[in-house]
Predict the structure.
Amino acid sequence: MKRIVTVQDISCVGKCSLTVALPIISAMGVETAIVPTAVLSTHTMFKGFTFRDLTSDIQPIMDHWRNEGFRFDAIYTGYLGSFEQLDLVGKLIRDFKGPETKVVIDPCMADNGKLYPGFTQEFAFAMAKLCSKADIIVPNLTEASFMLGIPYVGSGYDEDYIVDLLKRLAKLGAKEVVLKGIQFDKNQKTLIGVRNKIGIASYNSETGRISWYFHRKMSTSFHGTGDIFASVLTGALVRGLSLEKSYALAGDYVVKCIEKTLSHKDHNTYGVDFEAAVPYLVRRLGRESQLI
Ligand code: PXL
């Protein structure tokens, strides 16, 4: 069985980080090892959350695993809370990346032009440095801007701007860049058929290939969807789908999760009902992985 190790926090309530990565990657038929970085009562969009830092457990976990000789098909990191954790993840990659291991870094720290509580510009630069060790990075536009140290442009940009961002992000050192949350304004010169949609662009720095995938824009955005996206992308890659097919599946699954959530009028506002859309994910993955 294929095996992913994912490094991120446990937010006990909130449907993000490990509480989505574990069930989703498992449902995709891939073993999910975890390194929990912290335990929070909820994610940080709630007021009054508790936070227990688990940084001091990470090195002993890695020491034990090294003795056991564990190897992983992918190393996937999400929300990391400190500079020390960034260093430890660097060591994890050094010690556990085999020739076939895919390293996926989701520089989860910001959205809608703002850093999440507790993060700084300095941390964003340190995360950018960690990204040099990745095969694939999956920032949104806000995270991309902070990592590059440039102002966030939330609207009015064109295709050339996105291509330039992709190339600058690739210079951080990852082989492939997947940029999320792209929306072109009506009046922009752009790809046919993508207006009123939201999408993803990718760049392979070895082949120079740029690809795009756009899907329906939902009326409401929810926390945790970036974690769901990165989990599905990593699971699909390990199951053998191409990067383009993996992020198309991830994007479409997020849309389905939001649809399911909005279909209940008493829905949670903190996270999506990803559980209700698992059958869709499993069916589609089954179909697509048979075609490989
Ligand atoms: O979904 C990203 C995320 C992960 N972990 C924690 C968070 C957030 C976003 O707010 O607060 C603790």
